[in-house]
């Protein structure tokens, strides 16, 4: 038995193959897992729980089947689906975790985060993040008609894609000093996150201790996931080799 971690599926109507791969993974893993953690960006965008449609039913149903089997399911907001709320979580039978959550994973404290807070060199994104995570901004956005929200989301995505092309990969990656400061502030030597789409297991020194940062990949090529058991960590991603 093991614990399953995924992130950055970016599901949308344009990615039916990714949805199929996710449904297949949940079906395959259901009898083998003790818990499921979804660490953000399950969807390409989320405009509010009032935007749930029948098209979401297969995903909601598959996650609910996990929780109905008395396997705990946890969800953490990403930078694309931070407006997911309790309505969606309740339909899935999932618990929403605050960012930077420490869990006990087979007797060891491990810090979970989506990962965008670690990318402190990308000052433009950090300013945007502060704006959209403001409760007042979110309340106003969710009060708008759905078609207006859709248009705003498209504009934001276009701006983001254009901006990303002009930024170096280093700027958009996790800042090591931020990684170390975050881990130190939570008194952990292991961290699991997504967001950067760079699957890897990084080993480094944190003071006098050996530390590990496990990065989940996106699902553009194939299913990318992490399994953790009493015997260790296994990152299943076609782009990563130990």
Q: What does this protein structure show overall?
A:
The chain is α/β, with parallel strands linked by helices. The protein has a single domain, classed as Purple Acid Phosphatase, chain A, domain 2 (4-Layer Sandwich). It contains seven helices and eleven strands. It has helices at 16-29, 57-68, 86-92, 123-132, 135-143, 146-166, 176-185; strands at residues 2-6, 33-38, 73-76, 94-97, 101-105, 108-112, 190-193, 200-206, 209-215, 225-229, 232-236. A six-stranded mixed beta sheet has the order 4-3-2-1-10-11. The protein has a five-stranded mixed beta sheet with strand order 5-6-7-9-8, with helices on one face. Strand 2, helix 2 (57-68) and strand 3 form a beta-alpha-beta unit. Helix 1 runs parallel beside helix 2 (57-68). The longest helix is centred in the middle third of the chain and has 21 residues, at 146-166. The two termini are 22 Å apart. The model has no long low-confidence stretch (mean pLDDT 93).
